[in-house]
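Before anything else, study the sequence and fold tokens given here and see whether the fold suits the sequence. Record follows:
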Amino acid sequence: MIIYQSQTIYLLWNNMVDAVRSEEEMLKFMGLMNSSWLNGRNIMTAFDLSCFQRIVDLGGCTSALAREMTKAYPSSSVTVFDLPQVIETAQKHFSEENDTFVFQAADLYVLNHSMFRIIHDWSEEKCQILLKKIYDACKPGGGHAV
């Protein structure tokens, strides 16, 4: 399974921008991403994040993980960063009435933090630049989950 993932699935991410061109295709992709967080609460509680006042989900897509973060850590403020068109689609199709997190539109690569399933398909150079920006933005005692 690991070899299949490495040789097949990860390679497909390189073509995602070309593949997801219409709102309909984006919605299908986002639905898949949303359903992949069925165990999001288990992931978010594997480590005690209650000491963090602010939690940021970079590339939060449908906000499924952010939703679980707000339930697990109600005293923390949670922000989802993603591309403007992703946020617009997420708010239109995936919002729930009791959501307490906020969205912020941004291009992740130019952002000046939780990051799951984001940097696996980027070049090592791009990853280092992004991780350095996140490190520089963290206050003392801050953390970063990849």
Summary: The longest strand covers residues 77-82. DSSP finds seven helices and three strands in the chain. The chain has a mean pLDDT of 77. The longest helix spans residues 124-137.
